[in-house]
Specification:
Layout lengths: L15 H24 L14 H4 L4 E2 L1 H10 L29 H5 L13 H18 L7 E2 H12 L1
Antiparallel strand pairs: 1-2
Helix pairs in contact: 1-3, 1-5
The structure holds iron/sulfur cluster.
Length: about 160
């Protein structure tokens, strides 16, 4: 059975099993996020928002399908930012407007200004990433690797135009 892509242009409502599958995927994604947050609870940073200035840092979070689904389903699609920052930055350019739903990479990436224990929980991160990939496979089997957030975003903006 083909799983319906939530980005499809089709006007057809998703079939019930797909909707249930998506709901399960988001539930599991939130559990993964909670475990990532727990693993990073002893760590902190100055929260400057500089790591969200994607054009300047030349880094961006790469998202599996459920991560984009969570953003696309539960938040308005923001326009691209002129400064090349993540579109989900707020108007000040310093705060994430989707903080509770921010992608896995945003939860587990810290720059050199990280504060906390000497060792980051890399084993936990690796295990959670494997789980995340499996959840993604269930709802979008065609996706073989995560995609940069700006790619997901640009595709969604194009579709809206
Ligand atoms: S989703 Fe939020 S935390 Fe992640 S890069 Fe964008 S603004 Fe920053």
């Amino acid at each position: 059975m083909r799983h319906q892509d939530w980005d499809d242009d089709s006007d057809e409502a998703p079939s019930a099993p797909d909707a249930r599958e998506e709901a399960r995927a988001l539930q599991e994604l939130r559990a993964i996020y909670r475990q990532a947050d727990a693993a990073y609870a002893p760590f902190s940073c100055p929260a400057s928002g500089e790591c969200c200035q994607l054009a300047k840092t030349k880094r961006q979070p790469w998202l599996w399908a459920p991560e984009w689904l969570l953003l696309a389903r539960h938040h308005p699609l923001p326009p691209p930012r002129e400064d090349g920052g993540c579109p989900y930055l707020d108007a000040s350019g310093k705060r994430c407007s989707v903080y509770a739903d921010r992608p896995f990479g945003c939860r587990t990436f810290f720059c050199e200004r990280i504060r906390g224990p000497a060792r980051q929980p890399s084993d936990t991160v690796s295990a959670l990433l494997i789980r995340l990939e499996r959840v993604s496979e269930r709802i979008m089997p065609s996706l073989k690797s995560p995609r940069p957030i700006l790619e997901w975003h640009a595709e969604a903006v194009d579709r809206e135009e």
